[in-house]
Amino acid sequence: MSRTFVGMPKFPIAAHTALADTQLRRNLGHATATIRAKRAAVVAEVDDWEERRVRGAEAKDRALANLDTYLLELEARLVEAGATVHWARDGAEANAIVVDLTRAADADEVVKVKSMATVEIGLNEALEAAGIRAWETDLAELIVQLGDDLPSHILVPAIHRNRSEVREIFLREMAGAGRPAPDDLSDDPARLAEAARLHLREKFLRAKVAVSGANFAIAETGTLVVVESEGNGRMCLTLPDTLISVVGIEKLLPTWDDLAVMMQLLPRSSTGERMNPYTSMWTGVTPGDGPQHVHVVLVDNGRTDVLADVEGRQALRCIRCSACLNVCPVYERVGGHAYGSVYPGPIGAVLGPMLRGTQGEVEKALPYASSLCGACFDVCPVRIEIPELLVHLRTRVVDESRGGFPSAEGLAMKMTALTLATSGRLEKAQNAATLTGRLLGSHTTLGCLPWPLTSWSNARDAPAPPKQTFRQWWRATHDGGRP
Amino acid sequence: MKVALFATCFNDTMWLGTPRAVVTLLERLGCAVEFPTAQTCCGQMLTNTGYADEAVPLVRSFARVFEPYDAIVVPSGSCTGSVRQQHAWLARRAGDPGLEKAVTDLTPRVYELSEFLVDVLGVTDVGAYFPHRVTYHPTCHSMRMIRVGDRPLQLLRAVRGIDLAPLPLAEECCGFGGTFAMKNADVSVAMGADKARHVRETGAEVVVAGDNSCLAHIGGLLERQRAGVRTLHLAEVLASTEESRA
Question: Could you say which of A290, A320, A402, A450 is the most buried, measured as most Cβ atoms within 10 Å of its Cβ?
């Protein structure tokens, strides 16, 4: 049983703890620096990268603007190809569908392809509650599952672990889940991969049901696409008799031409490769070849709410590449768990509150978990304006709090706004500052400030207020001494 | 050409040396500059903290105060970015098409200092003299919001006597981020600690940037460490001469 994100502390508190975890800091710093450099190198090879980003954004926008008709087209093509289509308004409905389908296949276990949608809806926990074991087969998801841990990255869920930690988890936990790790297992990556391969192989060969997500769903032919690196996905998608794919409705692409654009953008942005090793595409059932029972569960789970938000809907362009996580200076230092939700990093700070609403303490804090440095937008292959969306969400959080008893911050901001409303008021406030500056005499910096400014001065000196403001100097030198 | 200085509230109140240096520099380059005293603030801190309603009067006042000018020069990449990329949105949000039009008419005339020098005045050698080892931090909003590119470095390279040391991982955020520095102080300081370390690795005496807000954060950390590195706004280096050194 893996842990869940429910009840985790809000970002500033979780970040405080994460920052003190030296092993986490080292693992993340190393991993994100490596993947950033790989991405930068392969993107630099492409002369018209910016044009491709624009085309990627346009393709997704076109799909989202006509999602209703494209989804029906997708359903029609899937049904023609022998698949069964299910619609789920939320995670609970989707989970119930998967549980029922698994039971109908007379199975008590499923093998899983790495899928963010199934983490989002808590499918593994729902299956476990129904007495069905869900085996993660992606190497990193396996590490997370065996370690009773939580994913901390969209693409590399065990990015917070190093190889010696992975070795310990394998030695300790594999036996309880199936084939044990060899006693002489070292932390050599090839040996670790071999142990995982042997452990998983028996599950692949035994499983009657596989559960996947999909990177893309192509409306014109009813084809689903899974992009992966390890080949475990290919095993799940071809060996079992029943295949259930849980797909967020925003994964839709109208045409194969659109897929071509995405395949130019996704591997370079996510793993820093020109092309990923395994791309699996399937269209319903192929008689006598692969799964003979193909189900597609189309999930909303908050997506139509995001679509209804004119400013925010561009977040649904996201193709889960993780480039924004890898480049984010905040993510690099605190890791994914501090975000307290399935989607971490800059896009998570946007998507989480959009999908789940901005009522919870975690969701209220997430839009503020960014310095608005803009590095995320620069690497986003579909040009999502993450910093702008974060500001829009902050506005939503503040607006939703209006009307009640004002917070200390709210009062401070209102006072600031009133002070800045006219130059006369600003000048009065400045006069108080320069008086303080003159009283402080020769001090140019201050080592401690009163609350709430202590959160600045705990680690940083502050400049002492000056003895003269610019406008006083200007009046004295340029404005004929006019007051 | 009627040129106005938008000093920014932060510089006006806390860092008079910077707008003063802009005036000195522009006058030296033969450009008369006015300081419309009714100006206050672009509203960025309010906008970025989520207080959009409170920021709207500041957008209105900015548009009114600077409307008569051909060029508005701002010694801050961040405040320039706020005017260019947030004011129109705030006006739209307030349901005020007249204000939105005033803002979109005005914003093409708003220049960050290095843009004004290189693009409008067409100079890179401003006749400055600054015989110190300097490293330059490109602030996020100058680099990624308004895209000043290498204009500040073109200007710095032409300064006589300067010993310009490249800053490792220069493009990474320093961690200031406005109210982020207070609301997420731990992360902010962790980012700033790495920035301060990179500054110290260069052996520079002075770290230069186009935003005093970021410099207050970086400088506050360096000062706490008694690192022996001071911060200086780009304008002050460019205004520096043999006769009047920064």
Answer: A320
Sign of the CA dihedral running A347, A352, A358, A364: negative
- pLDDT under 70: residue ranges of chain B: none
Query: Residue A211 belongs to what domain range?
Result: 48-304
- Among B186, B217, B219, select the one facing A19 at the smallest CB separation: B186
pLDDT at A483: 45
Q: Is the ipTM of this complex over 0.95?
A: yes
| Strands A223-228 vs A216-218: parallel, antiparallel or unpaired | antiparallel
pLDDT at res. A84: 98
* Confidence at residue A481, expressed as pLDDT on a 0 to 100 scale: 52
- Is residue B88 one of the residues assigned to a domain? yes
N-term to C-term CA, chain B? 28
Q: Which pLDDT tens digit goes with each residue over B150-160?
A: 999 999 999 99
pLDDT, tens only, A66-80: 999 999 999 999 999
Distance of alpha carbon A201 from alpha carbon A463, whole angstroms: 63
Domain-located, residue A400? no
Q: Could you report the per-residue pLDDT of A13-41, keeping only the tens digit for each?
A: 999 999 999 999 999 999 999 999 999 99
Strand order in the sheet with A209-212: A84-88, A293-299, A242-248, A209-212, A109-112, A133-136
Whole-number pLDDT of residue A480: 67
Chains A, B: CB pairs < 8 Å: 197
Closest CA of chain B from A239, distance in Å: 46
Spatial distance between the Cα atoms of A150 and A155, rounded to a whole number of angstroms: 13
Nearest chain A CA: its distance from B159 CA (Å):
25
- Distance, in Å, from the CA atom of B5 to the CA atom of B18, rounded to the nearest integer, reads 11
Put the strands of the sheet holding B110-112 in their side by side order: B33-34, B3-5, B71-74, B110-112
Give the position of tokens 């370390």: B197
- Asked if B180 lies within 8 A of A372 by C-beta distance, the reply is yes
| B77 plus B173 within the same structural domain | no
**Average pLDDT value for residue range A205-225:** 98
For residue B24, the enclosing domain spans 3-120
